[in-house]
Amino acid sequence: GINLRKVIDIVADILDVEPSIKQDPKFFRMTDNNIVIGDCTYLKKDLGWKQKFNFRKTIYDTIIYFDNFVL
Asked: What value does the CA radius of gyration of the chain take, rounded to a whole number of Å?
């Protein structure tokens, strides 16, 4: 699976930036999980799903799209 930190690292690498990540305690909730990682095991097993696109390439394409058409 891919956690949020990995997504941030991929975006930072694509944009050639060094992110400064600060956690604001006022937004923490004691009931939240400390680590949340997406897992597609059930989609693969139960539905026969297969990944067609590379995750890094998808992030790159999204950034290019927003740069060209949204911003």
From this structure: 16
In tens, the pLDDT along 20-68 reads: 988 888 888 888 777 778 788 999 999 999 999 999 999 999 999 999 9
Tell me the C-alpha distance between 39 and 45, whole Å. Answer: 12
At residue 71, the pLDDT reads: 65
User: In degrees, to the nearest 5, what angle opens at C-alpha 25 toward C-alphas 11 and 6?
Assistant: 20
